[in-house]
Amino acid sequence: MSKHRVSRRQFLNYTLTGVGGFMAAGMLMPMVRFAVDPVLKASAGGDFIATPQKVADITNEPTRVDFTFEQQDAWYTSEVTNTAWVYKDENGEIVALSPICKHLGCVVDWNKDKTNPDHFFCPCHNGLYTKDGTNVPGTPPIAPLDVYPFEERDGYLYLGKAKPRGGA
Ligand code: FES
């Protein structure tokens, strides 16, 4: 018989300690994740992301610009593609609008509704926005399209995280 025989009491102690530790880890992990998440998000979303759009080529006509970036979410990295509608306004200022409809989140298109030319149109419930992203009263959207902050680097357009117009 071995000298290191585990008594019933010790066995129960080890088992309960192990199970308790496992359960505690299960409860603590979401809390740690919650505390650390803003830091992770800041590194993923706080930076400006390169687009393939040359600033010199931006015209007065809204153009769809797709841009892809790697998003780090805790231990998981995924490739995300976002879209912006980009143009220069009458003052030559760049405008970069989110395509996400402020009604229920469908994707808007430029100049696709022949009865309302030169508007952003949401096909899901016939939502309309003027060229500057303002929602047209009487159509379902309840707010203007979000706006991307932007920078020019080496002649290319870089976009930040889209925010509600006038939002911080
Ligand atoms: S989701 Fe765009 S109008 Fe409803």
From TrEMBL:
Occurrences of domain Rieske (ranges): 86-159
Location, primary (coarse class): membrane
Membrane-spanning intervals of the chain: 12-32
Keyword Transmembrane helix: yes
Keyword DNA repair included in the entry's annotation: no
Keywords: 2Fe-2S, Disulfide bond, Iron, Iron-sulfur, Membrane, Metal-binding, Transmembrane, Transmembrane helix
Membrane topology: Single-pass membrane protein
Domain of life (superkingdom): Bacteria
Compartments where located: Membrane
Database matches in PANTHER family: CYTOCHROME B-C1 COMPLEX SUBUNIT RIESKE, MITOCHONDRIAL
Protein name: Ubiquinol-cytochrome c reductase iron-sulfur subunit
Phylogenetic placement of the source organism: Bacteria, Bacillati, Bacillota, Bacilli, Bacillales
